[in-house]
Amino acid sequence: TRAIQLDQRRADLHFFKGVCLYRIHQNNEALEVVNRAIELDPTNPVMYAFKGEILLALNQYQEASKAFSHS
What we know:
single chain; mainly alpha
């Protein structure tokens, strides 16, 4: 979180924060953070794949399918 405060333009920092939130089952917040990472780096397929995993955990299957199609 501190690193993001120092440089909010780094997609990787947002992505890794999302991974941490997902691992502690804070999936809604993880999704918000990963969406921000995707805004910053929309060409990274790994971020879309991870977004799909989060959406599956949230039982949002159609949205997960869309995310996986970008990965």
